[in-house]
TrEMBL record:
Its main location: membrane. Signal peptide: none annotated. It is found in: Membrane. Keywords: Membrane, Transmembrane, Transmembrane helix. It comes from the Bacteria. Gene3D superfamilies: 1.20.1280.290. InterPro entries: PQ-loop_rpt (IPR006603). This is MtN3 and saliva related transmembrane protein. Pfam families: PQ-loop. It is a multi-pass membrane protein. One of its GO terms (cellular component) is membrane. It comes from Spiroplasma clarkii.
């Protein structure tokens, strides 16, 4: 009986500690508005492993494992959303910058032609 209680305490402590490991990355990505350095492969691996671990935890009725991986799944979805959003925003920025540089080059050529 005592072993099961300690195992549950350790499980919930591990759940709370590992459920927050993505929060600093989400905060930093949101603060810097930059997600180019995030690996989409890593995010995909975390995504699919959290799904598999959740299924495993539900099958064996392990609540700490299931809660942990559901929270990791939700945080990972948020991080994937930030990655997609800021990648699209960066590409739009590059297009605008290219147009500006192109127009700037044209005006310099016009000035040089005069």
């Amino acid at each position: 009986m005592k072993i099961k209680v300690w195992a549950n305490i350790i499980g919930w402590c591990a759940t709370s500690m590992s459920a927050i490991f993505l929060i600093p990355q989400i905060y930093l990505t949101f603060k810097k508005k930059d997600a180019l350095s995030l690996s989409l492969f890593m995010l995909g691996c975390i995504f699919f492993s959290s799904i598999l671990w959740t299924i495993y935890g539900i099958h064996f009725k392990n609540l700490p494992l299931s809660v942990n991986n559901i929270s990791i799944f939700i945080l990972n979805i948020l991080l994937i959303g930030l990655k997609i959003y800021y990648t699209i925003a960066y590409k739009k920025y590059l297009l605008i910058a290219d147009k500006y540089l192109f127009l700037n080059e044209l005006s310099e050529k016009e000035i040089a032609a005069r």
